[in-house]
Description:
This protein is an alpha/beta fold.
Amino acid sequence: MKKVGVLVSGRGSNLQTLIATAREGQLGGEVAVVISNVADAPALDKARAAGVPALVCDHRGQAREEHDRRMLGVLREHGVDLVCLAGYMRLLSSPFLAAWPHRLVNIHPSLLPAFPGLDAQRQAWEHGVKVAGATVHLVEEALDAGPIVMQEAVAVRADDTPDTLAGRILEAEHRIYPRAVRLLLGGRWRLEGRRFIADPE
């Protein structure tokens, strides 16, 4: 059974979807451990309620690389094969990234490469785009710039607000993140330059 580690900082809705999909036998593995840099993150409660080990690695007062070394140790102790970022709000250090080549994945609420960084849904709404969406991508040094694994488009309605748009984008995230994780765990894919190619089933 392949094992997934999830890094979180907030409410944990994508985490909850990953756990539920794993329990249904549709993730291609199990969520083995959840780590948060925020002690009171609601995501920790969701993990514990599901019986998943949930640990706090507080980053305050520590150098980034030292903090990341602690997380790396926890992930290795749990035999993690793939690391998922699910609302994890810190940049990761180069040594941490190097430890998970093509085994570190993130979900972002825009159609990358458009609107990287924070508050992407509001960025898209303010820019006036007609189509927004969600992207699952492999994590590299540059922010929100790794190879794209999967995307789903979300139409922007005339009466949308940033909040209503964000809500529909979140629904898209919940659909594509488990599918992308299953694909990555299955190993039937390759990279050609920046292009992520899934092999035929």
